[in-house]
Automatic annotation (TrEMBL):
Source species: Drosophila lebanonensis (Fruit fly)
Compositionally biased tracts (Polar residues): 697-721
Location of region: Disordered: 131-156, 694-721
Keyword entries, A-Z: TPR repeat
One of the record's GO molecular function terms: ubiquitin-like ligase-substrate adaptor activity
The name this protein goes by in its record: Amyloid protein-binding protein 2 isoform X2
Lineage: Eukaryota, Metazoa, Ecdysozoa, Arthropoda, Hexapoda
First and last residues of every TPR repeat: 537-570
One cellular-component annotation, GO: Cul2-RING ubiquitin ligase complex
A biological-process GO annotation: proteasome-mediated ubiquitin-dependent protein catabolic process
InterPro entries: APPBP2, TPR-like_helical_dom_sf, TPR_rpt
Length: 721
């Protein structure tokens, strides 16, 4: 029986692409093999021998096994064998099926990710520790780094290397340096003063030194361990199991630091560190991420190697992502621009898409929407065409496109894009997954903004509840990512309570729940980011709005004032976030505290900022215009009242036209640009402050873009968005 099954499946496999042997025979053979399995000893012996099959067949057998609940324990044991998983993870066509298998096992609480991580660390960390003990007896041995971690690097003193003009294959390599100032008169331009270093130049400078005496590659066994560690660490983070990914990559990094040097060890170490930095930042483990960044900077300072341009671009992208997750938007934008400079036409599709996505997000938070639109549309198109509509990269790109649309006031379109992104992620990862929770949260926030005027938050509440439930099962109770989802839930509870109170119902309990959730998020933000951080300021602003609802006006005033000061100090007086908090304080002064003169000044400042950034049809202007009309009516300044009543009527006409015609200020760019064309457009788009300006009602000017919805937080997710 066993021999016949193996013969049948092998024959079917050999004929899969042959018209004389239809695919149906292969599928029937798979079902026959899996259907004959059970947990008896003879069956387990047969299952154990399956690993002798070709990888393309083996992954199909395991995929079918993952759909049979009685076989999941057996499958868990098979895949927990590092030798088996190593074979499969190196087979690129098996990757999507591996993701599906791990999702099926995790849904049944079969923790394959933890088993793999623990097995890798148990097998290879011990050898690294033994090597460490030997190294402690030889502290001066070449390649050892026994100094304590360096302090935060002074990026501004480091030089940018411009390799845009290097021709041929040498264009793929250059020294890896941190950026200097990339702005000239507030316009993005390529830096022309930097030195270009190619591989030949480095070889000539270094002469016949240490590197020539190093082996070209590590010993075979070490090479296998490195390759498997990089693949496994990246796979686990791609699958949404960040803590397990971090454990694998940390183990590999320690091993690399103690390994006998070989020719490309710097490239391998930087590759390992940038993957580790991604997992740590995505998991909001910022203390570890900072240590990883410090190690990258230290490696850079002592680096004599020539690095592939794609690796430089990805490393800069991960540094940008870390700063983005920490709400350090200037640094995030700076590093993403550097990543764009090193992006090459011949870079792998994954690298191109990830660099474009992160640069787009960094442009969004800098309100540079024209560049953001260019980049994210290219990322979505490339992900769709290269990987297909069911691939993770397409789902990732959609999630970032939804973030862009939400921030340019295309809320309805944003909801639809987020829904598609969630469907893609659920199709890959199932329900109980980190990436799926993030997608639920983002969709919940988009629904919250979309339904803000109707008060129907059913869909928003459903998705945020799912996000919170998933996060409770996969991260600690005091985790920053869980706090992010709870913050969105707090916003919803507040609005639901307001609607019920308007109907004469007592909903104090909902408001107290909202306060508890907001304070939970604030305390975590203070612990992780400190007082002077945009995220902390947003939490102060959210509490200010809540206290206003709860008639705690003095506390509300203090919260809004804190938010305004922190945001102004960090972002400047004309940033969108500053305008948002100013508008909220104006509302408090206007409707509750009767400070009409201060309210008028604040409303005018908020309107000025909105018009500068987003133009006359921006959704948030409605609340400021209504507030001003209330102020002028109350103080009997009927001339100004009539003036702003007319402006508000014009706003309604503009807004109605945009909604009726489904207009967006930034329509999707579907042109098939090359990377060189994308980079040219990116670096030559006119300065956002000098194009498309319109006149505001008080004589100021503003751009013709549109902007973010009226909430303290422009992005509900900490880390991904």
């Amino acid at each position: 029986m066993e021999a016949q099954l193996f013969a049948l499946i092998s024959a079917a496999c050999a004929g899969r692409n042959n018209n004389n042997n239809p695919k149906m025979l292969y599928d029937l053979s798979l079902k026959a093999v899996v259907g004959s399995m059970d947990t008896s000893v003879p069956s387990l012996d047969r299952i154990h021998k399956l690993r002798e099959l070709p990888r393309s067949v083996l992954i199909d057998v395991y995929d079918l096994m993952s759909q049979c609940e009685p076989l999941k324990d057996t499958l868990l044991e098979e895949l927990s064998d590092l030798d088996v998983f190593r074979r499969l993870i190196r087979h690129t066509p098996a990757r999507s099926k591996l993701l599906r298998i791990i999702a099926a096992l995790m849904a049944s609480k079969k923790m394959l990710s933890r088993r793999l991580s623990e097995a890798y660390v148990a097998q290879y960390a011990l050898q690294a520790q033994l090597q460490e003990n030997e190294d402690e007896e030889k502290p001066e041995e070449e390649g050892q780094k026994l100094d304590p971690p360096p302090q935060q690097p002074e990026y501004s003193k480091m030089q940018v290397v411009d390799d845009d003009n290097v021709a041929g294959t040498s264009a793929s390599c250059s020294r890896w340096n941190a950026p200097s100032n990339i702005y000239v008169n507030d316009v993005l331009r390529p830096v022309k003063s930097a030195t270009i270093v190619d591989a030949n130049a480095v070889a000539n400078v270094n002469g016949d030194s240490e590197e020539d005496s190093m082996p070209e590659v590590p010993p075979d066994d070490e090479g296998e361990i490195i390759d498997f560690g990089l693949r496994l660490g990246s796979f686990l983070s791609e699958a949404g199991w960040m803590q397990e990914s971090i454990a694998v990559l940390e183990c590999l990094n320690e091993r690399l630091k103690r390994m006998k040097p070989f020719r490309n060890i710097v490239i391998v170490r930087i590759d390992c560190l940038q993957r580790l930095l991604f997992a740590e930042s995505a998991h909001c483990n910022f203390k570890m991420a900072q240590l990883t960044l410090d190690e990258l900077m230290e490696l850079n300072r002592n680096c004599n190697s020539v690095l592939p341009a794609s690796l430089i671009a990805m490393t800069y992208t991960q540094i940008s992502a870390m700063h983005f997750a920490r709400n350090e938007y200037d640094n995030s934008h700076m590093w993403s621009v550097l990543a764009m400079r090193y992006l090459k036409t011949f870079a792998p599709a994954r690298v191109i898409i990830d660099v474009l996505r992160q640069a787009a997000k960094a442009c969004v938070v800098k309100r540079d929407f024209a560049r953001a639109n260019l980049l994210i549309c290219q990322a979505v198109r490339r992900a769709r065409e290269h990987f297909g509509r069911k691939h993770q990269k397409y789902g990732d790109a959609l999630l970032d496109y939804g973030f862009f649309l939400l921030n340019v006031d295309s809320v309805f379109q944003s909801v639809n894009v987020y829904k598609e992104a969630l469907a893609v992620r659920r199709g890959i990862f199932g329900n109980m997954n980190f990436h799926v929770a993030i997608a639920h949260e983002d969709l919940s926030y988009a629904y919250y903004v979309h339904e803000y005027s109707t008060g129907n938050f059913t869909c928003a509440q459903d998705h945020v509840d799912k996000a919170v439930e998933i996060m409770k099962n996969i991260v600690p109770s005091n985790h920053l990512i869980l706090a992010s989802a709870k913050r969105v839930k707090a916003l919803l509870l507040e609005e639901i309570a307001l609607d019920k109170m308007a109907d004469g119902m007592d909903e104090e309990d909902l408001l107290h729940q909202s306060e508890e959730l907001h304070n939970f998020a604030l305390q975590l933000s203070l612990e992780v980011f400190g007082e002077v951080n945009v995220q902390t300021a947003k939490h102060y602003g959210n509490l200010g709005r809540l206290y206003q609802t709860m008639n705690r006006f003095d506390e509300a005033e203090r919260m809004h004032q804190k938010a305004i000061k922190i945001k102004t100090d960090l972002l400047g007086p004309y940033d969108y976030e500053v305008g948002l908090s100013i508008g909220h304080l104006a509302s408090l002064y206007n409707y509750q505290m009767k400070k009409y003169s201060q309210a008028e000044d604040l409303y005018l400042r908020s309107i000025d900022i909105s018009l500068r950034l987003y133009g006359r049809s921006y959704s948030g202007l409605e609340y400021d215009y209504l507030g001003l009309c209330h102020v002028y009516e109350t103080v009997h300044d009927f001339e100004k009242y009539l003036r702003y009543a007319q402006i508000l009527e014009n706003w309604h006409m503009l807004r109605g036209q945009n909604i009726t015609q489904n207009k967006t200020s930034y329509p999707a760019i579907e042109e098939d640009y090359t990377i060189d064309e994308v980079k040219t457009k990116f670096f030559t788009i006119n300065n956002k402050w000098t194009t498309g300006l319109v006149h505001s009602p008080n004589g100021q000017t503003g751009s013709t873009g549109s902007g973010d919805p009226t909430s303290e937080s422009a992005a509900p997710s900490i880390g991904v968005n």
